[in-house]
Amino acid sequence: MNICIIGTGYVGLVTGTCLADFGLSITCVDQDEQKINLLNSGGVPIYEQNLEALIKKNVSAGRIIFTTNLEKAVKQSQVIFIAVGTPPNHDGSANLEQIEEVAQEIARYINEYKVIVNKSTVPVGTAHRIKEIINEYQTLSLQATEGSAVIPSSPNLNRRTGVSPVYPIPFDIVSNPEFLREGSAVYDFTHPDKIVIGTESDRALRIMQEIYRPLYLIDTPFVITNPETAELIKYACNAFLATKITFINEIANLCDKVGADVHQIAKAMGLDGRISPKFLHPGPGYGGSCFPKDTRALCSIAESFGYEFQSLKAVVSANKRQRELMVEKIKHLVGGLKGKRIGILGLAFKQNTDDIRESASIDIIKMLLKEGAKVKCFDPLAMDNAKKILPDLTYCQDEYETAHDSDALVIATEWNQFRNLDLLRIKKILKSPILLDLRNLYEPEKVKSLGFIYEGIGRN
Ligand SMILES: NC(=O)c1ccc[n+]([C@@H]2O[C@H](COP(=O)([O-])OP(=O)(O)OC[C@H]3O[C@@H](n4cnc5c(N)ncnc54)[C@H](O)[C@@H]3O)[C@@H](O)[C@H]2O)c1
């Protein structure tokens, strides 16, 4: 089966590569020529565990190609996945410009029956909107072939025969949200908790089941529903996880005040089968390309349907405050930030990724700079991305250069390599022995016994 994936970012590239590895014939399309050139020369634009090797394997096998030629890719493919960005607008709602642009392009080039699958995270009603865009174009094209309307171009005209396709050309829309996590995206795609397929067409459903057959064979549960429900499932999942993180963060903040230990509380909560232990790790607030934008987008979706999503609005504002509280912690420990040099370990929004979108670390750094602090930093993977938006920080080679002569060292991302620092060496090279552990990687008593002024979150 020929499949094209429009949008070769985190989701598109991982989806395309993994589907190629399932034995399907994949064309990954992106409008970013640099990205496509890099992929065609053997490079990989993002870091994901095992992704590079999997791309190489499937390129060699001739199962995946990369191109900017959307027209050819659409015409050759029976199934078209959309995996473009849906960034937030200023008011928090999802910006659908990329989706609508792609829908227009598909409408122009569709030449025979296609299944159009939306993998991007989109507000309820977007599948319907994509259908509308394509139908509107087809109506105009039909009128044009009858001579009663003019459309700007007829890209579907077969140049060899001079014959236009017969309108309307059939197509089906599927909402198939993606749940992969950056940092373990390849594993998540190939071992998902669930596959959600939202469609009103039996024909499209059969094709989707065929695409995901390898996952069906390993007993992955399938949720088959309508597009609106599928679209809302994705937001509901992300909003719930963001709520869980925010809840434990607030419990941790309370622990700081009352002298309780948030790890013990999280452990006990997690032992309750109704709660589960996952996503109960306190930190500087959720970040990344999904939770912040998706929580705000869901508030906005609710609002557009006349409903105030009160609890989620509180989550969004508590998450913002969490970052501010982290800066307050640093400020309190170093005694005012003006002129102080703060060493930051970790820039990525979480470990095992180079993604810094909505990273708590980046936000905290911006606040520190605003208060007059100087920042030295280190991240194993995300420094190149950080340099693009914060070129004036002091980027260090490792953890120890970052600590050297700093007034405090702050662990902002939970990279494994930060879990076993040579603390005695760190203490020697820090200007003052202050360690702020925003990911609770260390045991407070142990670190304090080495002579550090140490603070974690909710367990001091
Ligand atoms: N990143 C994640 O962890 C994740 C997980 C699940 C779902 N999602 C959702 O998936 C969608 C994509 O996310 P992402 O992180 O992969 O985004 P991304 O920004 O990494 O990639 C999007 C890609 O689409 C390309 N693009 C935009 N318009 C195009 C067009 N008209 N034609 C061809 N290419 C075009 C861009 O150049 C870019 O390479 C978003 O809706 C996101 O919310 C993301």
Key words describing this protein structure:
alpha/beta; 8-stranded mixed β-sheet; 6-stranded parallel β-sheet
What does this structure look like?
There is one protein chain. The protein has 460 residues and is of the alpha/beta class. The N and C termini lie far apart (57 Å). The longest helix is centred in the middle third of the chain and has 32 residues. It has an eight-stranded mixed beta sheet with strand order 3-2-1-4-5-6-7-8, with helices on both faces. A six-stranded parallel beta sheet has the order 11-10-9-12-13-14. α4 packs across α5 and α10 packs across α12. The model has no long low-confidence stretch (mean pLDDT 95). α17 links the parallel β12 and β13. Helices cover 45% and strands 13% of the residues. The structure holds nicotinamide-adenine-dinucleotide.
- What ligands are attached or bound here? nicotinamide-adenine-dinucleotide
Relative helix content: 40-55%
Rounded to the nearest angstrom, the radius of gyration is 25 Å
Question: What is the number of helices?
Answer: 18
Give the CA-CA distance, first to last residue: 57 Å
